[in-house]
Amino acid sequence: MFFSKSFIPILKNNPSEAKIKSHQLMLRVGMIKQSSAGIYSWLPLGFKVMKKIEQIVREEQDRVGVQEILMPTIQSSEIWKESGRYEDYGEEMLRIKDRQNREMLYGPTNEELVTEIFRSSFKSYKSLPQLLYHIQWKFRDELRPRFGIMRCREFYMKDAYSFDLTDDDAIFSYNKFFLSYLKTFKRLNLSAIPMAADTGPIGGNLSHEFIILADTGESKIYTDKRIFDVDSSKTILDKESLGVLRKQYEKFYSVTDEKFNKDEFEKSVAEEYRVNTKGIEVGHIFYFGDKYSKPMNAAVDFNGKKEFVKMGSYGIGVSRLVGAIIEAKYNDTDGIMKWPMSVTPYDCAIIPMINKNDKSNLEKSIKVHEFLKSKNIETIIDDTDENISAKIKKFNLIGIPYQLIIGSKSEGNLYEFKEVDGETQKLKVEDICSQIIKAKQN
Ligand code: P5A
User: Fold this and answer.
1) Domain harbouring 412, CATH code
2) Which residue's CA lies nearest to atom 28 of ligand 1?
3) Which of 26, 81, 164, 317 has the fewest CB atoms within 10 Å, i.e. the most exposed one?
4) Is the pTM of this model over 0.90?
């Protein structure tokens, strides 16, 4: 991709309406464009990052045996009346009437719709467990949408749902998601901590929020810092080890604001381990038993007996994660952003020094680009006539992890190469290639 032909509308200055760094940066480097309050268009740079996040989320769901489906954004009010949530959901729900005057809504979540799909498709306990997910836009008419795509009205969510025969089986499903969330956030280069949380309008009595620490986060958290050292890397998917894993986290006091109790915190966490800070909720999982299956009559036959299925639901804020990663990875002292390799819009920026009468550096850039492309490394060539330092500054801001400079200091087959926040090295293109491939594998 040539920069001159790309659609990356960079602004000269930080937009004044943006209060936090992710919102500022996303507008500044043209990742998103507001279309109305809390509703955004995703431009190529932002969209590329979101799609990469989506793919990692998908792979980790598939890995634990969750099946992908796609439910619509527009739902009928009927099923919400059955569950009793049509009134309860209040003004956050965007209600729409179709031409037959039927009450419809733009789904804020899908517990009802998936329960309806389940009840009309499954009759026997032998088909259980069923674990289903989709990745779809949601709409919540937030009273105060803010911080760009972090708390907006239309957002992209991965939501999964589990159906089991017994509470015990359902907890096993819950724990599968618990582990898969830890692995998903790790692949995004984030350290997300599971915290006991309130269930709000989704319901139930077991719930964890997955929170990454950030000063600009909206969630207040109280935790024991030893929770950051729990190792989930070797956990396998059997019932017992998943139970043990959750206990390893739960033995540390770790709650969000709504569950906070000062005496309990001080009693369970020695002063040296206490962390009282802010974070961003990037995922939230719930166990709510038969809260939806009972009123909606979603049951299976178990040896002649009707059993309402036990359900849980599991959300990841896919679009919110784009902002959350920026909050975690952007260094505002030097204005340098560095995308994790797993989600970066481009792996490497090729920055040639271009003179009016001499296009040889541009030609070299194209050759390097072709070579790297053949090794699955995605690059963007800055073919504009800005000077080198302006180009470097631009890519420091965008956050492309590597920069390859083709200019006066390139000698023979050696190029200047640097990690966005690292030292400049002089390397052959083959060595540059292996360095990037190595970084992609980590
Ligand atoms: C779980 C999946 C649910 O809706 N039902 C289906 C359950 N949970 S949740 O916590 O309400 O939302 C899941 C995740 O979605 C993100 N999120 C948002 N992102 C951007 N703007 C919003 N207004 C917004 N609301 C929720 C969060 O990451 C949340 O964890």
Assistant:
1) 3.40.50.800
2) 317
3) 81
4) yes
